[in-house]
């Protein structure tokens, strides 16, 4: 996923455009678009697939049964909903909760990329298979859930969607265990950023060392020139005239 500078300078600006968006056919069937909700300085960002019925009615992410389970899981971390940012890959409900079509995902992608760029979370927690594949296309949720994966300057933590745990209670404890890895993912992200800064400092240090060595060599040459016996003026002749060219 590319993260490029966008025309939006705030999360509120993105939300305003999402609410009025007609970029794809989902605008024809929605009640409300659902831009996302939470802290604009969040270290942890949750990304689901798309709004459901309750979200479509209220214009807020994860407010139905799956949202209530997510709130419970956040409490166990512990995190408050106000501490994180929650959004979806697509911002409008696909009819009958079907999978979003590729053109619908593409239409919403600039909004999601801009939200990530502006919030700059340390950890992205993807909720479900479809969300994970937007960031880790080679992944498989049954194998990669709960893994802490470096994706550039941040880390990814794929987990099962809360709705999947509601449908299949056997996934409930798995989801709980994966969510409890969020603090570890945050620590990993801090190490990642520290290592990145160390690499930058190392590179700067190497450049400065080379510059210092070059400067010392130049200074040594100048000292040798200054300490050499001065030529007699009458012998300088053409050489002295040529020196004025430099």
Walk me through what this model shows.
By secondary structure, this protein is an alpha/beta fold. The model is unreliable at 228-246 (pLDDT under 50). The longest helix is centred in the C-terminal third of the chain and has 46 residues, at 182-227. Helix content is 52%, strand content 10%. It has helices spanning 11-19, 53-58, 65-76, 102-119, 129-135, 141-144, 162-167, 172-179, 182-227, 233-243; strands at 37-38, 44-48, 85-88, 123-127, 149-151, 154-159. The chain has a single domain (11-188), classed as Uracil-DNA glycosylase-like domain (Uracil-DNA Glycosylase, subunit E), CATH 3.40.470.10. The protein is globular and about 45 Å long. The chain is built from ten helices and six strands, in the order H-E-E-H-H-E-H-E-H-H-E-E-H-H-H-H. Strands 1-3-2-4-6-5 form a six-stranded mixed beta sheet, with helices on both faces.
What is the strand and helix layout of this fold?
Blueprint: H1 11-19, E1 37-38, E2 44-48, H2 53-58, H3 65-76, E3 85-88, H4 102-119, E4 123-127, H5 129-135, H6 141-144, E5 149-151, E6 154-159, H7 162-167, H8 172-179, H9 182-227, H10 233-243
Parallel strand pairs: 2-3, 2-4, 4-6
Antiparallel strand pairs: 1-3, 5-6
Summary tags:
52% helix; globular; Uracil-DNA Glycosylase, subunit E; 6-stranded mixed beta sheet; alpha/beta; 10 helices; 246 residues
Proportion of residues in extended strands: 5-15%
Largest beta-sheet details: 6 strands, mixed
CATH fold-level assignment? Uracil-DNA Glycosylase, subunit E
Mean pLDDT reading? 85
